[in-house]
Amino acid sequence: MKFLSRENWLLFLYQHKDQVLRVLRWLRVLASILALALFIYYYGFPHAAATSKQLLTITKGIFGFFVASYVIRVGVSLQPWQYLRSTLFEGFLILLLLIDIFSVFVFGFNAVENLFLRLDIENFTPLYILSIQAYLLLLVGLEITKVSTGITRIRLKPATTFIYSFLALILAGTGLLMLPEMTTHQGGMPFIDALFTSVSASCVTGLIVVDTATYFTFKGQVVILALIQLGGIGILTFATFFALFLKKGVGISHQAMIRDFMAEESLFNAKGMLAQIVLFTLLIESIGAFLIYILWDANTPFLDDKGELIFQSVFHSISAFCNAGFSLFTNGLYEDWVRNAYLTHLVIAVLIIFGSLGFPAMRDIFSIRNIRVRLEAPWKKWKLSTRIAVWASLALIVFGTLVFKVTEANHTLSQTDGLGSWVTAFFQSVTTRTAGFNTVDISALSVPTAILFIFLMFIGASSGSTGGGIKTSTFVLIFLAVITTIRGKKSLELGSRSISFDLLNKAFTIFIFSATYILVGTFLLAYFEPKMNVLDLVFEQVSAFCTVGLSRGITADLSTASKIVLISSMYIGRIGTLTLAFALASRVETTSYRYPKAHILVG
Fold first, then answer.
1. Rg (Cα) of the chain, in Å, rounded?
2. Which of 181, 250, 357, 380 has the fewest CB atoms within 10 Å, measured from its CB?
3. Higher confidence at residue 466 or residue 274?
4. Mapping DSSP to helix (H, G, I), strand (E, B) and coil, where does residue 179 land?
5. Domain residue spans in the chain?
6. Residue 273 near residue 363 (C-beta atoms within 8 A)
7. Pair 389, 495: CB distance under 8 Å
8. Against a cut of 0.90, is the pTM above it?
9. How far is CA 488 from CA 108, 356, 484, 491, in A?
10. 287-312 pLDDT, tens per residue?
11. Four-CA torsion 467, 252, 274, 238, nearest 10 degrees
12. Coil, strand or helix: which one is 183?
């Protein structure tokens, strides 16, 4: 009895706690890997009912291990109640399973199964299996987020870590899309097409080499949707948010990484922005999905299928906010039954605008704290970066709408009159800068409009957003520098603020790098596709590099070499040219010297 006393038990825990936790940590890693492998095998490959039952049994066993692991961790904790409070979310998931098991042994029925029956869901077995696997995936996700904060222990530049995170997402997406159950194509999707689709979804571009609506099964479309969501707001942002949510803490270097990519002025702001990014995203996407759902009209072919209506609404809302441009319709929003659904077009356009403004700007405009501050002190303005994002976006939207209305009056708008033509022009002006949806036949655009689209795509969205391009701030700074030079001024000024030449140098670096890369990419496309129209190739290359996704109908006909060119363009365009340059460049040892000034003839 003496051995079981509280003092001896605490002493035993103190002596063996580290060893027990270390073993459990490695076992949880192995269990997580096995759980992911089972999940992929279950949904990615066809199998018989007996095999399905065996897989479910193994899944329940893994789930049981996570339960036992959690109980042991609580037991070895010297302060169990504090540990329970710090792991409430994980504990809640475990509690759901325990209730399920308890209901079977005590009351003789399965709680989850009974819930499905009460909801009049007859074929509850697939949903029940999915619910168990969803619980398990959440637990695996928790383990992954615990590991995510260890990223900064690896001696890599933040930019390099960001690049690798997207590369890992792309490779994972490629592998999943190649599984037999993801497509309607016999034998699965070819590697190059799966890679192209994964890059396009992860980099929120929208260029496609197959018809998303008919080539992929529901499972494949869900994978594409997950890639869009993770690629849209950044896999690092997701991992860091959940690490904070679990109260595991985030180191200074990890916060600095997020600060760099979210264009925040301080580590405190960067850390505080993480929760708002996810909350803003979920809130806006949810509202968008609801509005799209209620706006489906009588011509909708899947009107009687509520599940399909919900999925289509959610898919297009996420695709729009993340500026991806993927659609589950063969001809996009140019389908006969949706091309005149102008209210739906406006909802999608607003979602695109929100996504393209950038999270720092949205936080500055819409956060409750900032709204309260401006109500109390109306003279306080938005941050300069926010004003640039809002007013530059507004100017480009108006400019694109007016020019499109004029140049396409006798072409794609010839059959559209009145308000409809203005909505179409507005929608294309909004989506061309970054999203890639279309309500007109892009291949039928006139040459002046195609040139306009190239210009808008090249500028793109705002900094810290889900969109691509050189960004509105880069365009504004270069335009300001030109005006300043013409006027003979020696300093750059905007909004009663001085602009440092370091920022201007970054803007010119982005511009030159982007223009050069587009030129090289176009050259390679012209070399690999000598029979195609040069304007179409330029359009395709700009669309890929600026992660827009509009095409003049040549993507599926490109050779493998050309697809590789576009894959590289989408990837580099998404991670950012400046990010790539910083990741590859070596740091100079010192800049504390100056050479004599030189005079060079210019122009």
1. 27
2. 380
3. 466
4. coil
5. 1-148, 367-584
6. yes
7. no
8. no
9. 86, 34, 6, 9
10. 999 999 999 888 888 888 888 899 99
11. 70
12. strand
